[in-house]
Amino acid sequence: MSVDGTSEDPRKVVWFDIDNTLYSASTKISQAMGQRIHAYFVSLGIGEDEASELHHRYYTQYGLALRGLARHHDIDPLDFDRKCDGTLPLEEYIKPDPKLRKLFEDMDRTKVRVWALTNAYKHHANRVLKILNLTDQIEGLVYCDYEEPNFTCKPEAESYRNAMKMAKITDPSKCFFIDDSKLNVIAAKELGWGRCVHFHEVGLDAMEGGRMKKLEVDGDSGADQGIAVINDLEELRVVWPEIFSV
Ligand SMILES: [Mg+2]
């Protein structure tokens, strides 16, 4: 029983990151996003080189360029969201994937609740889920609340605790989690989240923190830290067999 006298849902909660996890980094959304973030830095009067440097530094330090911008510059996160995520022509980049939808349909909802956990704001998250035809498959969305002056985001511990609170779950071992950011997965693992998976696409030129980086198979994937590493979401059927009905 929980403190308010209601019993906690016994099912596990599967948390899906959205961007570059529910679709491949090869879709180039992250590149288009990187260009917009760069332009945003420049619009603040920051020079081209410094803009690139700060973008990368904030992404590396905070997990999200906007977190650094909100902390160190006088900006309105919602204005940033409108100009960056809000102008992405997502429909040109991603399409519904019947195989992905089937993967969601095959998760046994008597055993799991399926939620999304994203560092994006709700508008972008909902747009992506709608385009991918997954809106009805996601029971809850935990997004980065840019309306909060001091919002929290992955990989900050507070963001995972907040997610658990939103889903009314108190036992971290009941959380399953998949994200393309190794730092985000490690942070969840450190908080005791039960079954963590790093979605690690290999051989792609992907944008991270405003810089192009080739995703390689290397010792950096997280496999050595008790974290499963996959490069195709279908592999979830293998790493989380107990939550699939087929
Ligand atoms: Mg991601």
From TrEMBL:
GO biological process, one term: pyrimidine nucleobase metabolic process
GO molecular function: nucleotidase activity
InterPro entries in alphabetical order: HAD-like_sf, HAD-SF_hydro_IA, HAD_sf, Pyr-5-nucltdase, SSM1_domain
Stored Pfam families: Hydrolase
NCBIfam families cross-referenced by the UniProt entry: HAD-SF-IA-v3, Pyr-5-nucltdase
Protein name: Pyrimidine 5-nucleotidase
